[in-house]
Amino acid sequence: MPNERPVTREWLTRHPVEVAWDLIGCELYLIRDGSTVGGRIVETEAYAGPMDPASHAARLSVARQTMAGPPGIAYVYLSYGVHTMMNVVAHREGEAGAVLLRALEPLAGLELMCERRGGVPVHRLAQGPGSLGQAMGIRLTDLGADVVSSPEWILVRGERHGPVLASPRIGISKAVHARWRFFEHENPAVSRHRRGDQVDRADLVQLIPPAGTPIE
User: Fold this and answer.
1) Which pLDDT score is estimated for 216?
2) What is the pLDDT of residue 214?
3) Which of 123, 71, 131, 80 has the alpha carbon at shortest distance from 101?
4) Domain extent at residue 141
């Protein structure tokens, strides 16, 4: 497993759009109950604070408190009463935000991940945020866990295997125009929504509205 270039709290203290783009290619591992599972992050979504109508921080007090907390802690919630979803808190100083981990290319603990996911093909083990949570063994009690400093977690910077594309976020009914979903082009572990436009680091400034502006 990698042990160099760890993601730091300072690296996460940026706008969640910047962090979401940069997390593509990073590697995340969870060490628990004697087993290690994880892989490369290949799909993310950025969510801002209360000014983002699609963000939980706009309507849920627990989310608002957690997403305004220290960058690097986990915001975990249950979706539709079934899927455990994991976000990494990321925001500028004094603001709020988080990055939803939408898909992972499995690299470690494949046997355990397959067992948890009922034997689906490897590229589908962590394809989609609910599947990622199930394959990784994410628990609701991981809410507030420090992904940066906890011995259970390893989050390190990695390498991309292709261009990064941006598209609107999936499964939301508000702020539907923001192109805050990022994914590694043509990676089979990415969820099935694969249309988007290539974005480079220099393009990100165009995706971030001025501070205090509602997200649309």
Assistant:
1) 84
2) 80
3) 131
4) 9-204
